[in-house]
């Protein structure tokens, strides 16, 4: 092929599918392959990915395994949570927000190693192909992106297994049968889809859940925690300063223990179909409640309502793969401006699947007890002022009412 790549950087997990892709790239394009494996807090040992890549003929210097947990939370998760971003009312975008970082490193490694293409293992039915590729093209318009699932004829699990056996690719015993569901995980969430979960009328079996205990089995005693924020980002738990990734790790532990953050959700994919997923976002669910709690006393109503009205659009941009678009960056600038005084501490109650804000305080608070008290406010607010306020706001409604009465 005249336009065949000479060197490809592959997003490589070490699993069966991406190992098959690695070998397929070598045989289909007769090209060099560089592997990139990101530690985003998925909770798996990554050294086997290095060993598998070496077994498949990748030179040690062409195997890149990187711990990106801090960058992931600091530069992607936290900016998203400043917006309180939720897709279609419920989904906290755990998979969506990881893809631009992986794409960013794929492109950077391609540049550093002289590769002329990158490759991913996303299928032609899902959102991830869009997210990977839009991000890659935004960062390097000249990069070639290879999506094997849209090119090859390995259209079934049986054909994949046959290809693996023909090319001496190790196959875990449990991979010889149909997997009950597929899993994507990172520090923010775990996503499970497919097979046993494809019928949305059937309750998901309990074994699907991996990060959270069942709320029924959670402790019978509530736990109270305090989360401290500076300019919209969490910086401490119970008074102990922590890094972004450490904070999310700790909130995952606390939320998971109390059965917080489970979601059974049918979403609208960008490619047009609906899909059912089981999501677990224990730390993110706690973090969202905490961030909303501190905004309640530090964010002006006009700014807060504007921000809330823009949030669905911001969330949709992330879901659809437009993290590196100018419109997302414009919205981010507005959101970050709103967070200048979002500093303070929130007390939360964790109990059997629920997280509730029960206290919040801040030196930047806009809450004025003397203005809202039911006791004597010592002249802080003249209640007679409300009469004129109401008359002016009622004027147009009265005019409309008089007009309508004429035509009844």
Molecular structure report:
Homotetramer. Pathway: Amino-acid biosynthesis; L-arginine biosynthesis; L-arginine from L-ornithine and carbamoyl phosphate: step 2/3. Its main location: cytoplasm. The chain has 408 residues and is an alpha/beta fold. 40% of the residues lie in helices and 19% in strands. The protein has 3 domains: 7-71 and 95-178, 3-Layer(aba) Sandwich (Rossmann fold); 183-299 and 341-361, Argininosuccinate synthetase, chain A, domain 2; 369-406. The chain has helices at 16-29, 47-55, 69-82, 99-113, 128-139, 157-166, 244-257, 282-298, 301-319, 326-338, 369-372, 385-406, and strands at 7-11, 32-39, 63-67, 117-119, 144-146, 182-185, 190-193, 223-230, 233-237, 240-241, 262-268, 274-280, 344-351, 354-361. It has a 5-stranded parallel beta sheet, sandwiched between helices. Helix 9 (301-319) packs antiparallel against helix 10 (326-338). It is elongated. The N and C termini lie far apart (77 Å).
